[in-house]
Amino acid sequence: MESDSQSPLLFFSQFLE
């Protein structure tokens, strides 16, 4: 991804979608 800090957040977001 882009940011290591927001990486996990975006990853989880895709799982929830």
Strands, helices and their partners?
Layout: H1 7-16
Helix- and strand-based class? mainly alpha
Report the count of strand segments.
0
Give the C-alpha Rg.
7 Å
- Main sheet characteristics: none
* Global outline: rod-shaped
Stretches where pLDDT is under 50 for at least 5 consecutive residues are none
Helix percentage range: 55-70%
Keyword list:
17 residues, mainly alpha, 1 helix
Q: What's a quick, concise take on this entry?
A:
This protein is mostly helical. 59% of the residues lie in helices and 0% in strands.
What does this structure look like?
- By secondary structure, this protein is mostly helical.
- The chain is built from one helix and no strands.
